[in-house]
From TrEMBL:
Residues 20-86, 87-184 form the DUF1285 domain. InterPro entries: DUF1285 (IPR010707), DUF1285_beta_roll_sf (IPR023361), DUF1285_C (IPR048342), DUF1285_N (IPR048341). It comes from the Bacteria. This is Proteophosphoglycan. It holds the Pfam family DUF1285_N. The lineage of its organism: Bacteria, Pseudomonadati, Pseudomonadota, Gammaproteobacteria, Cellvibrionales.
Amino acid sequence: MAEPLFQQLQKLQDEFQGYPPVSSWNPDLCGDMDMIIKADGHWIHEGTEIERQPLVKLFASILKKEGEDYFLITPVEKWRIVVEDVPFLITQAAREEDGDCAQILLTTNTGDVLPLDKMHPLLLKPYGEPSQPIPYIEVRDGLEGRMSRDVYYQLIDWAEPRQPSEPPAKLCQLWLKSNGEEFLLGQY
């Protein structure tokens, strides 16, 4: 008989430093779990918000994306959940400048801190109605985070305006520099 999911999670948390190797786990689908990650970053289980942040972090550590579906996964169980947009929300940004080199660090709603770099690139994707390009970032293993409004405005403040090298030249582009890379933040 399989152990209840929560007991498995506690064992996994004790066993692994960092994140469990969910990409190597491929158990059979157990079914659909009544869990939703809302677009605003809140985790809802059976209609009630999960308010204990350590529990949210624990669930986030075993989150896996396959195609367009999201799963909570252990070595022996796999439960499909609903994600309204993306599983993470970027809630903080910090910038460190060292001479000509700048580094931007982003923090998710689950406490992950990641640099804006080649491994965690900025992606512009449509969001909302009317659809506007909003910056997202790959957090890990195909799981993305969307910038909160506050972080988005902070990034705009740090961005360098430039005229595009290709037409239409009427537009102005905003570029961010981090870890020796440049990322297009938007254009107006």
